[in-house]
Amino acid sequence: MIVFDDVRKSYAQGRREVHALRGVSLEIESGEFVAVMGRSGSGKSTLLHLAGALDLPSSGRVTVAGATTSELSDAERTLLRRRRLGFVFQFFNLIPTLTVAENVALPRLLDGARPAETRDRAAALLERVGLRDRTDHIPEELSGGEMQRVAIARALMSDPEVLLADEPTGNLDSATGSEIMALIRSVADEPGKTVVMVTHDAAMAKQAGRLVVIRDGLVDEGADAPGIAPPEEPPLPVADEAAGAGAAKP
Ligand SMILES: Nc1ncnc2c1ncn2[C@@H]1O[C@H](COP(=O)(O)OP(=O)(O)O)[C@@H](O)[C@H]1O
Ligand SMILES: [Mg+2]
Predict the structure, then answer these.
(1) Which atom of ligand 1 has the smallest separation from the CA of 43?
(2) Backbone phi, then psi, for 53, in 5-degree steps?
(3) Positive or negative, the Cα torsion across 61, 67, 73, 74?
(4) Ligand 1 within 6 A of CB of 235
(5) 220 and which of 38, 58, 215, 248 could share a cystine (Cβ 3.0–4.6 Å)?
(6) What is the pLDDT of residues 221-235, one digit of tens each?
(7) pLDDT tens, residue by residue, 42-91
(8) Could you give the angle at which helices 115-128 and 144-156 cross, rounded to 10 degrees?
(9) What local confidence, expressed as pLDDT, does residue 147 receive?
(10) Residue 216: which of 4, 5, 2, 18 has the closest Cα?
(11) What is the Cα–Cα distance from 167 to 164, expressed in whole angstroms?
(12) Which ligand 1 atom minimizes the distance to the CA of 46?
């Protein structure tokens, strides 16, 4: 369902180049529930953005739901994201001026779905995430956990084959995080749904069927969840900092 073939991704940071992914090859099958762990700055969000066709690799290929993202036009990539992928982010990314129901419905309306159908589906999803009594509120009237429920309902609006979640519980207390985790697991348990979730929390990662550890822009094949640096450990310096500091070049 998701294939990375020797994927590299670099970003310009001023005059420096940061190598966020340095040759990642990875295959995620349809129906898998994969947790991605790794220190801050190791490239997890970059990996998820590339898997979600939000960004393109500097080299190598990313194939999602049969499409190689770098071979699509911008319009085709937008449709791939809207129709086949769902996203959940750490900071929810809701539109502050829209109600809960409108936030959930918006992606389908943008895709030309019929308003009545869209409203019914949004209501059903809000019921599923336990927010039936919040539909007419705006995001700032909600708790963090409620906002993340809205984001999950929104992500499920197009009945996507792939759900991508970037630290979905990273901004929540642990009890609320566990509730969000239960929702994500319920999606992963549906037949044919592929879920990729970045997390710092080893207990949450354990609920996935598979763990992928990213270390310094590469998949660390042998790594195990308990060996992962907890968030309080200082982040690694970026990959090319030594070179940027004037180290002799070969
Ligand atoms: N848009 C960007 N522009 C410049 N540098 C970026 C950008 N996104 C990420 N980076 C850099 O790429 C590296 C990996 O970042 P990221 O994928 O966000 O890591 P993680 O999610 O594991 O914390 C970091 O050094 C980060 O500073
Ligand atoms: Mg990140």
Answers:
(1) 17
(2) 55, 25
(3) negative
(4) no
(5) 215
(6) 766 655 444 444 455
(7) 999 999 999 999 999 999 999 999 999 999 999 999 999 999 999 999 88
(8) 130
(9) 95
(10) 18
(11) 10
(12) 17
| Residue 157 counted as domain residue | yes
Residue 49: give its domain's CATH number.
Answer: 3.40.50.300
DSSP codes of every residue in 15-57: TEEEEEEEEEEEEE-TT-EEEEE--TTSSHHHHHHHHTTSS--
**Domain assignment present for 236:** no
What distance, in Å, lies between the first and last C-alpha atoms of the chain? 40
Helix (H) or strand (E) holding 7: strand 2-13
Report helix, strand and coil shares of the chain as percent, to nearest 5: 35, 25, 40
How far, in Å, CA of 17 to CA of 97, rounded? 37
Range of the domain at 114: 2-222
**Number of folded domains that form the chain:** 1
Q: In Å, what is the CA distance from 9 to each residue of 48, 58, 79?
A: 12, 5, 23
Q: Looking at ligand 1, which residue's alpha carbon is closest to its atom 16?
A: 43
- Whose C-alpha lies nearest to ligand 1, atom 11? 20
The residue among 40, 19, 49, 32 whose CA lies nearest residue 228 is 40
